[in-house]
């Protein structure tokens, strides 16, 4: 699973780009509102199909909600991008949404002795980093770095759960949000940013047991049937996916440079 719903502000006017010899997309950089004391998150948005036609009419500074996009990560440039989804214009009164849902497999064990993977700060914060491999189709996968941070008093201790229950190859579904750290490099005096996924909650894949026999599922309620169908939402129908990669390649996503096979063995995972 790879599902993103975010609010964003256009940082430029959308422009048309060729994605293949026969198809195009509308592309522009957008800014996601900051989370807490973090910086705004710059990210590239690629829109296809009917949504692209509406997206092309927008101008810089337009505020939108992007629903049902897919998140990609380019290991070579270490940048995230959004692809597809439904775009709708909103205003300042619309609540800020930043939801990322990913399902895949963990690519490493957590080493408690490695400060890059797990640490406890003097102020009592517990921080854990993990990496998720998410299939993009055609036997390829994207790697997404995410982290959990909490105190010992928090009711939901995600960092400790990651340390205790995630291992290389373990299936995991996470819900998080895109956040960006900004700082000035003390050596070069250049401004630097890093975008990661901050974990909100997670679900481990169930453990299989070959001895268990499937149980019969019995209906709990009875649903009445009727030939009288009412017209809902003024007769409008659900908009089809505007992501051509879903339809053309069975769920595959466009190729990005620097791709690795699914769940590769890496000596060092960048955090």
3D architecture notes:
It is globular and about 60 Å long. The model is unreliable at 258-271 (pLDDT under 50). The protein is mainly beta and 271 residues long. Strands 1, 2, 3, 4, 5, 6, 7, 8, 9, 10, 11, 12, 13 and 14 form a 14-stranded mixed β-sheet that branches. The chain has a single domain, classed as Beta Barrel (OB fold (Dihydrolipoamide Acetyltransferase, E2P)), CATH 2.40.50.140. The chain contains 3 helices and 14 strands.
Give the count of helical stretches: 3
Distance between the termini: 22 Å
CATH class call: Mainly Beta
How large a portion of the residues is in β-strands, by DSSP E?
A: 35-45%
| Large-scale geometry | globular
Q: Give a count of the beta strands, DSSP E runs of length 2 or more.
A: 14
Brief overview:
The protein has 271 residues and is mainly beta. The chain contains three helices and 14 strands.
Question: What's the structural blueprint in terms of helices and strands?
Answer:
Elements: E1 2-10, E2 15-18, E3 24-32, E4 41-47, H1 49-55, E5 63-74, E6 79-83, E7 86-89, E8 98-106, E9 118-120, E10 125-137, E11 140-151, H2 158-165, E12 171-184, E13 191-204, H3 244-248, E14 260-261
Parallel strand pairs: 4-6, 11-13
Antiparallel strand pairs: 1-3, 1-5, 1-8, 2-3, 3-4, 5-6, 5-7, 8-10, 8-12, 9-10, 10-11, 11-14, 12-13
